[in-house]
């Protein structure tokens, strides 16, 4: 139960970030950056009596209905919560805070807005959810036309960007393309930061003591690999384990105390799944 609550808290933080980026950087500068948010900005331009948040709620209802019709009921509760939560957050900001452009410099708005929006999306994605919307169209293209998901999503995003360029002008359309490209980079970077750990290999004359410290004091698992010294030909044992940065600091301090001549290598593990880490999904 606590895990579920934590997931929904993170999803809420994520879509608030997205809503802030759209309302204070993209919408006031007419940057239609793909997805249902960009599409809603375009529709709002032609139907100004409807708020962007309200358009998103209506569009989400239509898209989820189409999704259930063509794709079945394979939509998770977290995705429903994230998509309608984002629409509600944008409606709330528009209704009570009257959003304005924090900067009218299109380059700054594109970069800062994408950093905020991409971070929010990455937080949502890290909880195995999405903001729905045009992702559903991408899944339909994938299912019926065999286009892979990445290309399907790019196709949908660039369609929205093109409609934005027609609506708001080529100059803003080109900035929107920059936002779409930068957004993918931000999402990947933030998600890898959430899931990254340190992959550690240790060769020492005190293997048993280090293994005992890892398994008992640190409550971490490890694997013992049998090796052979390339120069000496002697049999050696290598400890392999994965841990976070704070645990690595503790381990290095301990190794320094008992075997200052130990050989230790550390690599970045961008995603770790299994017991003690994220579930395999």
Structure description:
Its main location: membrane. Keywords: Cell membrane, Membrane, Transmembrane, Transmembrane helix. By secondary structure, the chain is α+β, with helices and mostly antiparallel strands. The protein has helices spanning 2-26, 35-46, 52-71, 77-96, 106-126, 134-145, 149-168, 170-195, 207-217, 245-258, and strands spanning 197-203, 223-228, 235-243, 263-269. The protein has a four-stranded antiparallel sheet. Helix 3 (52-71) packs parallel to helix 6 (134-145). The protein is elongated.
Short description:
By secondary structure, the chain is α+β, with helices and mostly antiparallel strands. The chain has 10 helices and 4 strands; from the N terminus they run H-H-H-H-H-H-H-H-E-H-E-E-H-E.
């Amino acid at each position: 139960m606590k895990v579920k609550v934590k997931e929904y808290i993170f999803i809420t933080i994520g879509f608030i970030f997205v809503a802030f980026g759209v309302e204070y950087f993209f919408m006031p500068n007419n940057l239609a950056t793909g997805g249902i948010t960009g599409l809603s900005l375009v529709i709002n331009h032609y139907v100004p009596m409807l708020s962007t948040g309200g358009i998103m709620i209506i569009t989400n209802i239509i898209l989820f209905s189409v999704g259930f019709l063509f794709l079945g009921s394979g939509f998770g509760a977290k995705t429903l919560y994230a998509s309608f939560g984002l629409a509600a957050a944008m409606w709330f900001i528009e209704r009570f805070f009257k959003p304005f452009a924090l900067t009218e410099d299109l380059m700054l708005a594109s970069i800062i807005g994408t950093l905020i929006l991409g971070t929010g999306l990455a937080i949502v994605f890290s909880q195995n959810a999405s903001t729905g919307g045009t992702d559903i169209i991408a899944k339909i293209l994938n299912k019926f036309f065999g286009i892979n998901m990445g290309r399907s999503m790019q196709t949908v995003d660039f369609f929205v960007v093109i409609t934005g360029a027609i609506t708001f002008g080529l100059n803003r359309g080109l900035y929107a393309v920059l936002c779409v490209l930068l957004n993918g980079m931000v999402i990947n970077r933030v998600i890898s930061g959430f899931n990254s750990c340190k992959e550690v290999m240790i060769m020492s004359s005190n293997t048993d003591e280090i293994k005992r410290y890892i398994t008992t004091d640190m409550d971490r698992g490890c694997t013992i690999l049998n090796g052979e010294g390339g120069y000496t030909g002697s049999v050696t044992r290598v400890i392999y384990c994965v841990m976070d940065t704070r645990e690595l600091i503790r381990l290095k301090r301990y190794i320094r105390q008992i075997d200052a001549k130990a050989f230790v290598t550390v690599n970045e593990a961008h995603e770790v799944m299994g017991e003690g880490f994220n579930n395999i999904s």
